[in-house]
Amino acid sequence: MKCIDEVPDSELKGKRVLVRSDFNVPIGKGGEVADRYRIERGWKTLQYLRKRGAKVVIISHIGREREESLEPVARVLKEFGPVVFIADIVGPAARGAVSAMRKGDMLMLENLRRDLRETENDPSFAKELASFADIYVDDAFAAAHRAHASIVGVAKLLPSYAGLLVCDEVREIDAAREPEHPSFAILGGAKFETKAPLIKLLLEKYDNVFITGALANDVFKARGLPVGHSLISKELPSEDIHTSPRFLAPIDVTAEDKSGHAKVKKPEEVGDDERIVDAGPDTVAMLVPLIAQAKFILWNGPTGIYEEGYNHYTQQIAELAAGSKAKIVIGGGDTIAAIEATGVPKEKLGFLSTGGGAMLEYLLKGTLPGIEVLK
Q: How confident is residue 65, by pLDDT bands cut at 50, 70 and 90?
């Protein structure tokens, strides 16, 4: 895999470069971007190309609904540089705008997923996108686990390179796959059935693996402990996982009753009318020495339901990590949003990946469809 900064500047000047960014960001009720993190990270590659006189055509998807528009993202990008938004993908408006580009121009086209051929990896759609450019750059790490037309189809039709963001992601997550010891992994979220293979791999690679969030509920249930009406996965952890000497789960929890009152208690004390919403203070105390001695920390998933305000123990862990000397890799949109809500400075927390599912899949497999096609 070659990074775009390996291409001589003379080979970029005046060339049309199609950049597959990942600007799939949340849009608030007022129609404005609610979280700029991915946009800020993605701007680095766009600016790099623009400064070298390339004609930059930006493509991305946004949201789950085909009707959603990238226009709010374009408004944010315009704060960084002169980006023109075209409310079209491969139609006459897009073709006309691309053909009229001059050196250093930047165009952003509309939401790729408005065309059903994108997710179907339709060769005709890939060919139409590729016709816009001389060079293709994949800078969409968070979407690199999707075998879609703009990710793998176009890359087969043009000279293709990884963007600066993707190169950073691969380098940092490769390090997380072979961590320096002592190493400590924190894994939260839900759906144990999708994370079981990764947990088994982490137990082989890391000195300690702490399971939190809704995944911890599955551990409690597998151990025969009460979980009330907490979120539970379809599949529970097998005994070889939750009895591993490297495996850790919360030793106390925050449980909320039906009236919304929350109380810290031992897992075995959770009532039938309660749900587990976070870890507890004894759990954080258990992690203090592990974080302090770690030379490498991998973290994906908050400890609690941060959207409902249960972010206290995520904040405490973030503060401990920020004060450690470990190399840190953190991923997952929920994790980063939860950490941002705590006020702990991101710059003290090592590398923050833009990928959630893509990061977890890369950790497990060491490659992704969108990475493999660039090799």
A: confident
